């Protein structure tokens, strides 16, 4: 076995692997002997097939497979042993295409192009200054959040008549231009119509003052311009809407108005659990603290964006762009074109540069992930999912641990958590090391910061 690296420049090199007979012959021979023991040929007893016949039939495919295995193993080991920080994966060298005579060759040479990561010559220090936008939690924002909570636990209550944007329950029946029922026309019982979403103002006005038992004819095409919404209301396939009359008789069965929940002990218990909050003052403080937690998370998110942009701006080294474009095309063969790669290449290189910055920081600062820390990280991520997707803030600890351990047992998910935790470790190090240019802003001003991006 002979492996050598020829540097083209600081970022590109060619690795040539020469595989000799001694590197593969024993492996190939053992496999063919095993084939002979198991082979079944007409006219021969099991295990008595001539080795020459077995070799004639199977040697070339076995040889090719074993050469590929030896090649992959040796190349991978060489890259690790030589501590070569490569980008992407090695690609076959175009100037030295592989030409093999499997019948006669005993020595095989393979050449690979590799792209090398540049040496980064900067570090994260207290000399760096990055803005940190702290969002103020004022009374107005707390009151808005309390209003949202009251809305979340509100309910519809029946009232006597339509006043504005109530919810109407009604029976619908397709009618002709004269208001007569269409034979075999569409009928819908107990349809729910939110007047808030009726697009035509004139139609909306016709509902005003109506009570249960009252009827009116409306043009559903004008009332509900969105075909998906209209099809859902009429309970028909969207493709059949063109076959249906636009006019429908609407017979009201009930009128309901949405009312927010009252801010009292019942709401406190629904929002936070039985007796967790026992007064208006405690409720206000709880909401305020929750908002602060959310706002702090948003501030950290903005800081991460700014820190990433700051250090990308300090990344002055070149990348092996030609190699990377070729590798992207190869790795995504049939999925992307060269034009798409060229168009998105700046975005790709920005992500790659950030990966290199993170890697250097992790190595330089010896940032480590341990198993207990990874488990806690996974538990917090799963807890946030419960909040985001199900609105559940209090998840039992044993349930969180169970889900987290199951998730970490799956390789792909585990790798995702490791990558996420590494990201957290790097940003935590940046935040405690650099000089923070603290700026307190309102939520409105904070949101406008993203308009500039």
Produce the secondary structure layout.
Blueprint (H helix, E strand, L loop, with lengths): L1 E6 L4 E8 L1 H18 L12 H31 L4 E7 L15 E9 L12 E7 L3 H14 L2 E5 L7 E8 L12 E8 L6 H7 L7 E5 H4 L3 H8 L12 E13 L5 H8 L7 H34 L7 H11 L6 H28 L5 H20 L6 H12 L2 H23 L1 E7 L1 H6 L5
Parallel strand pairs: 5-11
Antiparallel strand pairs: 1-2, 2-4, 3-4, 6-10, 7-8, 7-10, 9-10
Helix pairs in contact: 1-2, 3-8, 11-12
Walkthrough of the structure:
The structure is a single chain. The protein is α+β, with helices and mostly antiparallel strands and 453 residues long. It is built from 14 helices and 11 strands. The longest helix has 34 residues.
Summary keywords:
453 residues, alpha+beta, five-stranded antiparallel beta sheet, four-stranded antiparallel beta sheet
Shape: extended
Q: In total, how many beta strands?
A: 11
Q: What percent of residues are in strands?
A: 15-25%
- End-to-end Cα distance: 54 Å
């Amino acid at each position: 076995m002979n492996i050598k690296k020829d540097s083209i420049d600081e970022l590109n090199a060619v690795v040539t692997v020469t595989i000799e007979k001694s590197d593969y012959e024993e492996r190939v021979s053992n496999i063919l002997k095993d084939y002979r023991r198991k082979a079944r040929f007409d006219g021969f007893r099991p295990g008595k097939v001539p080795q020459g016949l077995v070799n004639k039939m199977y040697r070339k495919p076995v040889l090719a497979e074993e050469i590929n295995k030896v090649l992959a193993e040796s190349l991978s080991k060489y890259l690790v042993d030589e501590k070569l920080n490569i980008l992407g994966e090695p690609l076959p060298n175009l100037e030295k295409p592989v030409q093999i005579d499997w019948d006669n060759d005993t020595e095989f040479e393979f050449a690979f192009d590799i792209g090398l990561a540049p040496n980064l010559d900067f570090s994260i220090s207290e000399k760096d200054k990055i803005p940190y936008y702290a969002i103020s939690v004022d009374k107005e924002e707390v009151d808005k959040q309390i209003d949202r909570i009251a809305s979340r636990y509100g309910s519809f209550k029946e009232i006597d008549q339509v006043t504005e944007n109530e919810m109407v329950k009604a029976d619908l029946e397709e009618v002709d231009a004269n208001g007569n029922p269409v034979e075999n026309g569409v009928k819908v019982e107990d349809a729910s119509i939110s007047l808030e979403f009726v697009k035509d103002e004139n139609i909306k006005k016709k509902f005003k003052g109506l009570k249960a038992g009252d009827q009116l004819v409306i043009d559903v095409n004008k009332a509900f311009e969105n075909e998906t919404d209209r099809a859902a209301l009429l309970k028909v396939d969207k493709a059949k809407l063109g076959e249906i009359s636009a006019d429908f008789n609407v017979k009201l069965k009930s009128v309901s108005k949405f009312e927010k929940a009252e801010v009292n002990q019942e709401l406190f218990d629904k929002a936070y659990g039985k007796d967790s909050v026992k007064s208006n003052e405690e409720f206000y403080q709880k909401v305020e603290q929750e908002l602060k937690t959310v706002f702090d998370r948003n501030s950290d998110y903005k800081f991460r964006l700014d820190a990433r942009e700051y250090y990308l701006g300090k990344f002055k080294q070149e990348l092996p762009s030609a190699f990377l474009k070729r590798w992207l095309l190869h790795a995504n063969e049939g999925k992307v074109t060269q034009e798409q790669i060229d168009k998105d290449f700046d975005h790709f290189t920005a992500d790659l540069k950030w990966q290199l910055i993170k890697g250097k920081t992790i190595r330089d600062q010896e940032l480590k992930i341990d198993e207990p820390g990874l488990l806690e990280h996974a538990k917090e991520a799963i807890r946030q999912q419960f909040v985001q997707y199900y609105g559940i803030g209090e998840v039992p600890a044993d349930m969180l641990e169970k889900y987290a351990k199951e998730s970490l047992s799956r390789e792909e998910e585990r790798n995702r958590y490791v990558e996420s935790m590494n990201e957290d470790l790097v940003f935590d190090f940046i935040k405690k090391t650099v000089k923070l240019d603290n700026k307190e802003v309102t939520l409105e001003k904070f949101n406008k910061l993203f308009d500039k991006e």
